Amino acid sequence: MHPETRAAQAGTEPDAETGALSPPIHLATTFERDADGSYPKGYMYSRDGNPTRHRFEAALADLEGGTGCAAFASGMAATAAVFSGLRPGDHVIVPQDVYHGVRRLLRERFEPWGLRVTEADLSDPRTLGDAFEPGTRLVWVETPSNPLLRITDIRFVADRAHEHGAACVVDGTWTTPILQRPIDLGADLVVHSVTKYIGGHSDVLGGAVVGREADSVVFSAVRSAQRVEGGVMDPFSAWLALRGLRTLGARLERQCSTAQRLASTLAGHPAVAAVHYPGLASDPGHDVAARQMSRPGAMLSFRVRGGENAAMAVAGAVRIFTRATSLGGTESLIEHRASVEAQPTRTPRDLLRVSVGLEHPEDLVADLQQALAPR
Ligand code: PLP
Predict the structure, then answer these.
(1) Rounded CA separation 4/20 (Å)
(2) Ligand 1 center from residue 354 Cα (angstroms)
(3) 231, 209 Cβ separation under 8 angstroms
(4) Closest ligand 1 atom number to CA of residue 207
(5) pLDDT at residue 342 above 90?
(6) Model's pTM, two decimal places?
(7) Is the CB of residue 134 less than 8 Å from the CB of residue 163?
(8) Catalytic residue among 6, 39, 47, 227
(9) CATH fit for domain 3-245, picks 3.40.640.10, 3.50.50.60, 3.40.50.1860, 3.40.50.2020
(10) What's domain 249-372's superfamily in CATH?
(11) What pLDDT does 347 receive?
(12) What pLDDT does residue 334 have?
């Protein structure tokens, strides 16, 4: 069955009590015990387990091809749960242009606590081998990367990680299981900021970790962090996330085809110095992306001739795109990325990042063309 079909029906099993197709939102924090002390319905306390959250977790695990899922209050809470399963002295490898929030989490929280971190260019298979050390426990993959859209071969990295006794974790926020299924390619965990495409409407903050094996050491540590540290996804967010899953396939189909069109327009524009989008045949990641993604995604970035001021002027001149951070909503966003990221950053100062929404493609093309026109 295609993932779009599964997504369209995600979590729609009729409610056992009423037959309702839209799942109930269970706000209860505590659940009744039987006279014999047991919990016959399987729920005891909402931090431990909540029926609405469970529906979302089961649906996302199914879509990713995993057997366990833990949903969190944000993508960063999910990310922190993965690293908190490690021990002081352990070593991890992360991409050079990893999402800046992950770099900040490691620098401000986990390095002072004793985690050792190496940043490597995971899109270049030759450099990965040198990054392993005794004690490497985890390789973190982001593909396409943020904001340079570098592509990493997930199967290659997962195989190398396993040879060194390390887990391979993929941040699937930009792709969702509709575009890429890291577990099929060998990953042990898939992390999501549900805030982005899964929520899909810029109105829910959430995160999730899907495990290939629910009882693996690496996923059990994530489940423990969820229950013990308590940064869980709340029931209403879980309901919104479930609703987002149901339209994910249709949204991404439209968003990816518009992104391809915008990337082609930008690639031929005299005011644009470079376009980063794996759907372009000229992109260095094109072949690997074509192999491991069903479509090249709905995010792209481009560099404006003339440097930072010229890039700022383009962002300042758009009329349909909204100048805002984040991604994955119905509205198209444009962002001067370097000035948003925690410093120091490797992001070029002339780069603008685009999240493609659901507007008519011709309106978006025309808006970028007028914003890039000489003034
Ligand atoms: N991972 C990626 C790739 C992201 O883009 C983001 C947020 O922008 C996150 C993780 C963090 O997610 P959240 O903002 O939901 O904490």
Answers:
(1) 22
(2) 15
(3) no
(4) 15
(5) no
(6) 0.97
(7) no
(8) 47
(9) 3.40.640.10
(10) Aspartate Aminotransferase, domain 1 (3.90.1150.10)
(11) 92
(12) 98
